[in-house]
Amino acid sequence: MTDITYLGVELGGTKCVCTLASGPDAIIAQHRIPTTEPGETLGAIERVLDDWMTDHRPVSLGLASFGPIDLDPDSPTYGHITATTKPGWKNASVAQRFARSTGLPTAIDTDVAGAALAEGRWGGAKGLSSFAYITVGTGVGAGIVVGGRSVRGLGHPEAGHMHVARMPGDAWPGACTFHGDCVEGLASGFAIEQRSGRPASEIAADDPVWAAVAHTLAGMCHNLVMTAVPERILIGGGVVTRQPQILPMVRQRLVASLAGYGDAIAVTGRIERFIASPALGDQAGPLGAIALALDAAKAGQAAPAGV
Amino acid sequence: MTDITYLGVELGGTKCVCTLASGPDAIIAQHRIPTTEPGETLGAIERVLDDWMTDHRPVSLGLASFGPIDLDPDSPTYGHITATTKPGWKNASVAQRFARSTGLPTAIDTDVAGAALAEGRWGGAKGLSSFAYITVGTGVGAGIVVGGRSVRGLGHPEAGHMHVARMPGDAWPGACTFHGDCVEGLASGFAIEQRSGRPASEIAADDPVWAAVAHTLAGMCHNLVMTAVPERILIGGGVVTRQPQILPMVRQRLVASLAGYGDAIAVTGRIERFIASPALGDQAGPLGAIALALDAAKAGQAAPAGV
Fold it and tell me: Which domains, ranges and CATH numbers included, belong to chain B?
């Protein structure tokens, strides 16, 4: 990339990160804004973007947001947050609002899809066209890329809410308010804290809870292999980063679970590379928004439908 | 479609169906060949295709085959059957052999992916770009289409081998030789017969086994919604066709399982259309091969890599 600049906004549950960049190694400016109610938060973001637009001439805007988001370009509520339980954000217009205020070609996807696309462009999945990016933090999310594009259909994936095989002998009911013992209900930071009575970061590396967490994440990888057939699965997020013993346990349990079936043979021979850490660290989210901005610029998209 | 003709071959575990057609309602000729050992079977198919090529001038060939198949166009064994347990077929060259013998642009995909593409073009998923087609027969297979294309990555989906939430109180270990209680291990015709001691078709509609089967298939649909986000899921195959009480049970259990989460809300309001029967009946497989032939003709593909 040259001196062409792009705007990115990662909208998270607790904070939003605005980024002005010409590439992954050329972040010109970055600004954090706490996520409060939508009018205040989105207004503050607009003022940051406005300043940058005056001084630089960014060509497009990428939005990587918490969800669920309406991603149907033909929908009147395209780019709105939809059924969130986050106070005030239900039906908040994000993409249409920013497309209008900036006048720039704008793309939106989930935060995890953005992070996955950034890892595919510049990070741990570089050169691959089908891969997945799992983040294990307060919740469990996954960005799924198939044939170079993030998966879309009825909506966007919510792979953290799939069910998997339970660890034999483990009958803890799980902490997901929707699905009980889905992956998020068993392996998220929230679930681990509910189960153990203390934050995941304070639990010893040899605590038995990690076997249940690793079993659940291996089950998630098993089901991704059988459906989206990723060439690699990156697993990051606060819980996994602070408890590095988890990833080797996931690898071991995934190999056992796949049991040498079909293409899974190709996985077991290179499991260290198949289940890997993301490469962009804390910048995966912000660069996810920049990756979406690059897509928006490439598509030469005008403002999204309905604007 | 006009008078342009296409060749299709569906390779199945017990029989192969060769089709000469100019469209879904214009099957000109069809010929069945028992599946024995590869030399004999593929030779017999070649003779049928050869006759048709002399009399008609088909423009392309589609192959919809049992798997696993190597679908990596850069692989020297592209279009080969790979790790099958079917005697003699391991490493059998299918696509390269037929591309060479016919000299036609050739496409290959799994039998279920072909059937899914045919249902998308002409059948129960017409007009949709993201959907899934599940067949419950001796085994359980699924074709997954995202953005109009069948999913590819590390290989092709083997969604019948995902794990799902077990029905509370049901601890039957499952019949899959690889994964025990994966979907195929619990809901396939083979598994049902192992469990019940008689063929699925001879079991009464109110037998308790159907609750376990429906629970498993609903779990499969739940996980597909969370990963591939299909706009519709078609469920067919011998077991489901002969036991029509299964589909309403799957719908009911899927609505309960999704629990109103996110985009799943959109599903529950139109569950009758979301979980539906395929429309092409016995011709889904043969027309799957024809759908792949259309793709091959459109891509203007020469013979596949390595030929």
Answer: 5-111+282-298 (3.30.420.40), 124-278 (3.30.420.40)
